């Protein structure tokens, strides 16, 4: 009897492992397929409406792919056990991930061209709303009036961006498949692609996270590490899938606009709406106020000189972004575990890595300015 029970137990564990793996694969397929539909549908709809792909990336695609952040933050805000604390960590962590991981990986696949409008207007807006969030968080809380201010900001940003984007449609590569000619049928098809693509992204990211977390636990990885890595990146998977696929397909305005627009949307809409519905607002932990928020602002500011140099993100700059994200994640894990290696790691980052990155940015910008001066 004991042997029989043991055999049943092992079969049950095997079945659970197989189900988890299938769930993971289904989530991955939905994520990739949803990104494909979203990029193609949004790109074609942009052309039909005379709106540039950059504007679509900054609005429709960016807002849609931020749906997981919105769902997680609002759900945590309604928690009766202080779950609203999760919201600001979700937003700040996703914003850091959007720039360092998503743009870094997209640029590593193919250099990303940056429009002048993005450098002159949208990145400064991203920096501005990031600093605004820091100022609103000084009292260690984002209250309802703060949330109302942030949410009003996203309405103004969206309206202004769409107004500016009229009549700026540009041809981009969205595939070679046969499509119906322009008309109501084509528009309905493109809108259906966007809606279905967004739904696939949301469900795919949810199932992929669940599958990945279950598999990690089955391998004995601590829940702390899971929370700091898989779950933290999980809500940014739609942005990652969409930007990487857009970069690979040549729709690089959507790839960059998606990341920048998502950062703006995360602060103004996701955190704004969360603060509005949270019973006591969104609490800001001291570690977020004194470390993670400054890192988010520094990452946003770092975009300007990188974007300015030739209005592009080169492959090597993409790998620098990826390296920075790896260092940030390693620091979070070491700090959470209070690891003995944390002081040494912090000294290496402060004394060698950070100065090297700053020096690289200064040299790159200086060369670009001199090249333009000689050419002018």
Characteristic terms for this protein:
two-stranded antiparallel sheet, single chain, 2% strand, A middle domain of Talin 1, two-stranded antiparallel ribbon, 13 helices, mainly alpha, 376 residues
Outline the structure in words.
This protein has helices spanning 2-49, 53-65, 67-77, 85-109, 116-136, 144-164, 184-218, 223-234, 237-248, 252-277, 286-308, 315-337, 342-375; strands at 112-113, 141-142, 282-283, 312-313. It is mainly alpha-helical and 376 residues long. It has one domain (13-171, 184-339): A middle domain of Talin 1, CATH 1.20.1420. The strands form 2 sheets. A two-stranded antiparallel sheet has the order 1-4. Strands 2-3 form a two-stranded antiparallel sheet. Residues 4-9 and 169-180 have low confidence and may be disordered.
Short description:
The protein has 376 residues and is mainly α. The protein contains 13 helices and four strands. Strands 1-4 form a two-stranded antiparallel ribbon. Strands 2-3 form a two-stranded antiparallel sheet.
